[in-house]
Amino acid sequence: MAGHRAMLGSDPANKHEKGTSSMSDATLKPLTIDYYTDMLCVWAWIAQRRIEELEAQWGDRIQLAHHCVNVFGDTMEKMNRQWSDRGGYDGFADHVQASAAAYETAPVHPDLWRKVRPSTSATAHLMLKAAEITSSPTTAVSLAAAIRHGFFIDARDISQLAVLMEIATEQGLDPDGLNEALVSGRAMAALLSDYSTSDAQGIKGSPSWVMNEGRQILYGNLGYRILHANVEELLHHPEQEASWC
After folding, report:
1. Nearest 10 degrees: CA dihedral of 229, 230, 234, 235?
2. Is the pTM of the predicted complex or chain greater than 0.85?
3. Rounded distance between C-alpha atoms, residue 122 and residue 25, angstroms
């Protein structure tokens, strides 16, 4: 995977107490992390547990903004272009299984990409934007976890709108509201905004973390300690990070 810039810091043990902390007011502001993923990306599935741990560790000190990036927009074209000489869909299925094998928290159904071959990730991305519009970003994040579970564990074809609507309904979302956001084009507009922003920020793939107002981009299969160290450094020294030429 692509490289990253690791930043070292100490363990975050001190809590802010009124009148006793030497932290600046800027340190108390939540650190915004723009998080880009593609719903069909196995590395984003593997990173799911790390994201949950990051939020559990830092709580309201960080604010994750979830976005979609176009990696599997046309899976058949992707297989023909990148995997035609490496076994096609079956070769990619072997790659996905091998990639996830070392991670107990990211099981992968054996039928993925052999029998279950989603045509695109864009349909799932559209559903997430519809959930974000009609409910809330938090609801969309929960739905994303359910959709990933449906694909990677249950081998459900999440490129099919009917399957996505079933998963959303199982999560308690209103299908009529979701459908209105899809039919009206509002979900499409929100999705294209994500894709446009990812291009503008130079996002190379999934998963990607953008911090420090775009100055710092981490990409690929990063260990939790690397994510933790970068977040900790930015929280404790935000003004120093912004001062470099």
Report:
1. -40
2. no
3. 40
And the tokens for 109?
A: 């159904």
Nearest one of 44, 224, 18 to 152, comparing CA atoms: 44
Better pLDDT: 10 or 60: 60
Which residues make beta-bridge pairs with 33?
A: 64
Q: Which residue has the tokens 């470099």?
A: 244
47 half-sphere exposure, CB direction, 13 A CA radius: 25
Tokens, residue 49: 């547990």
95 CB-contact burial (10 Å; exposed 0-12 / middle 13-18 / buried 19+): middle
CATH of domain 31-241: 3.40.30.10
Tokens of 145: 């976890």
154 touches 164 (CB < 8 A): no
| pLDDT on residue 238 | 59
Between CA 160 and CA 156 the distance in angstroms is 9
Residue type for position 174: D
How far apart, in Å, are the Cα atoms of 232 and each of 2, 8, 52, 130? 22, 8, 16, 33
